[in-house]
Amino acid sequence: MGNDPGMTELRRGVLGPCVLALLEVRPRFGLELVRELDAAGGLLTSDGTVYPLLNRLRDAGLVTSEWRDAEGERARRYYFITDDGRKQLAAFRADWTEFAATVRGVLYPVGEEGRRQ
Amino acid sequence: MNETVLEHPLVRDYLRALDSACAGLPAAQARELREQIAAHLDEALPPGAADAEVRAELTRPGTPGALAAEAAGPGSRPAGRRLLPGSIPPHSVRLLRVCDGPGGQTIITDLSLRVRVGIAARTENLQPGLAWAPQDNKASDCGQNG
Prior knowledge:
Largest sheet of chain A: 3 strands, antiparallel
Low-confidence stretches of chain A: none
Strand content of chain B: 15-25%
CATH class of chain A: Mainly Alpha
CATH superfamily of chain A: Winged helix-like DNA-binding domain superfamily/Winged helix DNA-binding domain
Oligomer: heterodimer
Distance between the termini of chain A: 19 Å
Protein backbone atom coordinates (compact mmCIF):
# COMPACT_ATOMS: atom_id res chain seq x y z
CA MET A 1 0.00 0.00 0.00
CA GLY A 2 1.18 3.51 -0.76
CA ASN A 3 2.77 5.95 1.61
CA ASP A 4 1.33 9.22 0.34
CA PRO A 5 -0.21 11.57 2.93
CA GLY A 6 -3.75 10.52 2.02
CA MET A 7 -3.05 6.86 2.74
CA THR A 8 -1.25 7.80 5.96
CA GLU A 9 -4.35 9.70 7.12
CA LEU A 10 -6.61 6.83 6.13
CA ARG A 11 -4.50 4.40 8.11
CA ARG A 12 -4.54 6.71 11.09
CA GLY A 13 -8.32 6.81 10.93
CA VAL A 14 -8.93 3.09 10.77
CA LEU A 15 -6.17 1.85 13.07
CA GLY A 16 -8.12 2.57 16.26
CA PRO A 17 -11.18 0.53 15.20
CA CYS A 18 -8.86 -2.26 13.94
CA VAL A 19 -7.17 -2.42 17.35
CA LEU A 20 -10.58 -2.51 19.04
CA ALA A 21 -11.67 -5.32 16.69
CA LEU A 22 -8.62 -7.42 17.61
CA LEU A 23 -9.22 -6.81 21.31
CA GLU A 24 -12.88 -7.72 20.91
CA VAL A 25 -11.80 -11.26 20.00
CA ARG A 26 -9.55 -11.55 23.04
CA PRO A 27 -7.17 -9.49 25.19
CA ARG A 28 -3.68 -9.15 23.72
CA PHE A 29 -0.31 -7.75 24.72
CA GLY A 30 1.52 -5.04 22.81
CA LEU A 31 3.84 -7.03 20.56
CA GLU A 32 1.04 -9.46 19.79
CA LEU A 33 -1.18 -6.63 18.58
CA VAL A 34 1.63 -5.14 16.52
CA ARG A 35 2.42 -8.49 14.88
CA GLU A 36 -1.21 -9.12 13.96
CA LEU A 37 -1.69 -5.65 12.52
CA ASP A 38 1.55 -6.14 10.54
CA ALA A 39 0.33 -9.50 9.30
CA ALA A 40 -2.98 -8.00 8.17
CA GLY A 41 -0.86 -5.96 5.76
CA GLY A 42 -0.25 -2.27 5.23
CA LEU A 43 -2.06 -1.00 8.30
CA LEU A 44 0.96 0.26 10.24
CA THR A 45 3.21 3.11 9.17
CA SER A 46 5.58 1.92 11.90
CA ASP A 47 5.22 -0.59 14.74
CA GLY A 48 5.61 2.01 17.48
CA THR A 49 2.52 4.01 16.53
CA VAL A 50 0.35 1.31 18.11
CA TYR A 51 1.43 2.34 21.63
CA PRO A 52 0.49 6.03 21.62
CA LEU A 53 -2.76 4.91 19.99
CA LEU A 54 -3.44 2.35 22.75
CA ASN A 55 -2.83 5.05 25.34
CA ARG A 56 -5.27 7.38 23.60
CA LEU A 57 -7.90 4.61 23.44
CA ARG A 58 -7.31 3.99 27.14
CA ASP A 59 -7.67 7.71 27.96
CA ALA A 60 -10.94 7.68 25.99
CA GLY A 61 -12.19 4.76 28.10
CA LEU A 62 -12.37 2.35 25.14
CA VAL A 63 -9.53 0.11 26.32
CA THR A 64 -8.07 -0.85 29.68
CA SER A 65 -4.74 -2.47 30.44
CA GLU A 66 -3.54 -4.80 33.15
CA TRP A 67 -0.31 -6.61 33.94
CA ARG A 68 -0.61 -10.38 33.76
CA ASP A 69 1.99 -12.74 35.03
CA ALA A 70 1.24 -16.22 33.69
CA GLU A 71 3.29 -19.05 35.14
CA GLY A 72 6.41 -19.78 33.12
CA GLU A 73 5.97 -16.62 31.10
CA ARG A 74 7.19 -13.09 31.44
CA ALA A 75 4.91 -10.44 32.92
CA ARG A 76 3.10 -8.62 30.15
CA ARG A 77 0.76 -5.69 29.94
CA TYR A 78 -2.46 -6.94 28.35
CA TYR A 79 -5.03 -4.70 26.73
CA PHE A 80 -8.79 -5.26 27.06
CA ILE A 81 -11.73 -3.71 25.24
CA THR A 82 -14.33 -1.98 27.46
CA ASP A 83 -18.10 -1.83 26.97
CA ASP A 84 -17.71 1.67 25.54
CA GLY A 85 -15.06 0.27 23.22
CA ARG A 86 -17.48 -2.39 21.97
CA LYS A 87 -20.17 0.24 21.34
CA GLN A 88 -17.72 2.45 19.46
CA LEU A 89 -16.56 -0.50 17.37
CA ALA A 90 -20.12 -1.46 16.46
CA ALA A 91 -20.84 2.13 15.43
CA PHE A 92 -17.67 2.25 13.33
CA ARG A 93 -18.54 -1.03 11.59
CA ALA A 94 -21.85 0.46 10.47
CA ASP A 95 -20.22 3.74 9.41
CA TRP A 96 -17.43 1.98 7.59
CA THR A 97 -19.74 -0.23 5.55
CA GLU A 98 -21.71 2.80 4.41
CA PHE A 99 -18.59 4.91 3.83
CA ALA A 100 -16.79 2.21 1.84
CA ALA A 101 -19.86 1.72 -0.36
CA THR A 102 -20.08 5.47 -0.98
CA VAL A 103 -16.40 5.77 -1.91
CA ARG A 104 -16.61 2.74 -4.13
CA GLY A 105 -19.61 4.19 -5.93
CA VAL A 106 -17.70 7.39 -6.69
CA LEU A 107 -14.42 5.69 -7.58
CA TYR A 108 -15.99 3.13 -9.91
CA PRO A 109 -18.95 4.87 -11.52
CA VAL A 110 -21.41 2.86 -13.56
CA GLY A 111 -23.23 5.11 -16.01
CA GLU A 112 -23.32 6.46 -19.51
CA GLU A 113 -19.68 5.60 -20.07
CA GLY A 114 -20.31 2.04 -19.10
CA ARG A 115 -18.60 -0.07 -16.48
CA ARG A 116 -15.00 0.84 -15.69
CA GLN A 117 -12.37 -1.39 -14.21
CA MET B 1 25.73 -12.49 26.85
CA ASN B 2 23.38 -9.88 28.29
CA GLU B 3 20.41 -11.04 30.31
CA THR B 4 18.06 -8.84 28.35
CA VAL B 5 18.45 -7.07 25.06
CA LEU B 6 17.66 -3.81 26.87
CA GLU B 7 21.31 -3.79 27.94
CA HIS B 8 22.48 -3.84 24.33
CA PRO B 9 24.26 -0.52 23.58
CA LEU B 10 22.15 0.12 20.47
CA VAL B 11 18.92 -0.43 22.40
CA ARG B 12 20.15 1.81 25.22
CA ASP B 13 20.99 4.53 22.70
CA TYR B 14 17.55 4.21 21.13
CA LEU B 15 15.76 4.45 24.49
CA ARG B 16 17.91 7.40 25.52
CA ALA B 17 17.01 9.15 22.26
CA LEU B 18 13.36 8.37 22.97
CA ASP B 19 13.68 9.98 26.42
CA SER B 20 15.08 13.14 24.85
CA ALA B 21 12.44 13.21 22.15
CA CYS B 22 9.68 12.81 24.77
CA ALA B 23 11.03 15.54 27.05
CA GLY B 24 8.25 17.88 25.94
CA LEU B 25 5.49 15.40 26.88
CA PRO B 26 3.88 15.13 30.30
CA ALA B 27 6.19 12.96 32.43
CA ALA B 28 3.67 10.15 32.99
CA GLN B 29 2.95 9.92 29.27
CA ALA B 30 6.66 9.81 28.40
CA ARG B 31 7.29 7.14 31.07
CA GLU B 32 4.43 4.99 29.83
CA LEU B 33 5.53 5.14 26.20
CA ARG B 34 9.11 4.28 27.18
CA GLU B 35 7.90 1.31 29.21
CA GLN B 36 5.82 0.07 26.26
CA ILE B 37 8.60 0.44 23.71
CA ALA B 38 11.14 -1.17 26.05
CA ALA B 39 8.82 -4.14 26.67
CA HIS B 40 8.21 -4.40 22.93
CA LEU B 41 11.94 -4.52 22.12
CA ASP B 42 12.66 -6.85 25.01
CA GLU B 43 10.12 -9.27 23.65
CA ALA B 44 10.96 -8.82 19.97
CA LEU B 45 14.69 -9.48 20.37
CA PRO B 46 16.48 -12.38 22.10
CA PRO B 47 18.93 -11.44 24.90
CA GLY B 48 22.05 -12.20 22.88
CA ALA B 49 20.87 -10.61 19.62
CA ALA B 50 23.60 -9.64 17.16
CA ASP B 51 24.14 -5.99 16.28
CA ALA B 52 22.70 -6.42 12.80
CA GLU B 53 19.55 -8.01 14.19
CA VAL B 54 19.15 -5.27 16.79
CA ARG B 55 19.74 -2.56 14.21
CA ALA B 56 17.10 -4.06 11.89
CA GLU B 57 14.52 -4.34 14.70
CA LEU B 58 15.15 -0.76 15.82
CA THR B 59 13.99 0.54 12.44
CA ARG B 60 10.56 -0.98 13.03
CA PRO B 61 9.07 1.06 15.90
CA GLY B 62 9.84 4.30 14.03
CA THR B 63 12.26 7.06 14.99
CA PRO B 64 12.12 8.41 18.55
CA GLY B 65 11.06 11.77 17.12
CA ALA B 66 8.19 10.22 15.16
CA LEU B 67 7.04 8.25 18.21
CA ALA B 68 7.10 11.35 20.41
CA ALA B 69 5.13 13.29 17.77
CA GLU B 70 2.59 10.47 17.58
CA ALA B 71 2.27 10.46 21.36
CA ALA B 72 1.80 14.23 21.42
CA GLY B 73 -1.20 13.67 19.16
CA PRO B 74 -2.33 14.82 15.75
CA GLY B 75 -2.02 18.51 15.05
CA SER B 76 0.68 18.99 17.66
CA ARG B 77 3.66 21.12 16.84
CA PRO B 78 7.12 19.59 16.67
CA ALA B 79 8.47 18.79 20.13
CA GLY B 80 11.18 21.47 20.01
CA ARG B 81 8.59 24.24 19.71
CA ARG B 82 6.40 23.00 22.54
CA LEU B 83 9.07 23.36 25.21
CA LEU B 84 8.27 25.48 28.22
CA PRO B 85 10.68 26.57 30.97
CA GLY B 86 9.46 23.77 33.21
CA SER B 87 10.13 21.03 30.70
CA ILE B 88 13.74 21.46 29.70
CA PRO B 89 15.27 18.22 28.48
CA PRO B 90 18.36 16.86 30.19
CA HIS B 91 21.70 18.07 28.85
CA SER B 92 20.20 21.27 27.47
CA VAL B 93 21.80 24.58 28.31
CA ARG B 94 20.07 27.83 29.23
CA LEU B 95 21.64 31.25 29.32
CA LEU B 96 19.80 34.03 31.13
CA ARG B 97 20.50 37.77 31.00
CA VAL B 98 19.19 39.74 33.97
CA CYS B 99 19.02 43.53 33.86
CA ASP B 100 17.02 46.46 35.26
CA GLY B 101 14.23 47.62 33.03
CA PRO B 102 12.11 50.77 33.01
CA GLY B 103 9.88 51.45 36.02
CA GLY B 104 12.02 49.42 38.42
CA GLN B 105 11.23 46.13 36.71
CA THR B 106 13.73 43.36 36.40
CA ILE B 107 13.94 41.92 32.93
CA ILE B 108 15.17 38.41 32.45
CA THR B 109 15.96 37.51 28.91
CA ASP B 110 16.27 33.84 28.17
CA LEU B 111 19.08 34.18 25.66
CA SER B 112 19.14 30.61 24.58
CA LEU B 113 17.66 27.26 25.24
CA ARG B 114 19.85 24.90 23.31
CA VAL B 115 18.03 21.68 22.66
CA ARG B 116 20.00 19.60 20.18
CA VAL B 117 18.62 21.65 17.31
CA GLY B 118 17.95 25.37 17.31
CA ILE B 119 17.86 28.12 19.88
CA ALA B 120 14.75 29.52 21.49
CA ALA B 121 14.65 32.98 23.07
CA ARG B 122 12.05 34.46 25.42
CA THR B 123 11.78 37.47 27.67
CA GLU B 124 10.31 37.67 31.16
CA ASN B 125 9.30 40.89 32.88
CA LEU B 126 9.26 40.54 36.65
CA GLN B 127 7.78 43.00 39.13
CA PRO B 128 10.26 44.62 41.56
CA GLY B 129 8.83 42.69 44.50
CA LEU B 130 9.52 39.32 42.90
CA ALA B 131 13.16 38.63 43.50
CA TRP B 132 14.88 36.20 41.24
CA ALA B 133 17.69 34.18 42.72
CA PRO B 134 19.71 31.44 41.07
CA GLN B 135 19.57 29.23 44.18
CA ASP B 136 15.81 29.26 44.30
CA ASN B 137 14.56 26.67 41.81
CA LYS B 138 11.02 27.93 41.89
CA ALA B 139 11.98 31.52 41.11
CA SER B 140 14.45 30.50 38.45
CA ASP B 141 11.67 28.80 36.56
CA CYS B 142 10.82 32.29 35.33
CA GLY B 143 7.47 32.17 37.00
CA GLN B 144 5.42 30.44 34.33
CA ASN B 145 5.35 26.93 35.71
CA GLY B 146 6.98 27.41 39.09
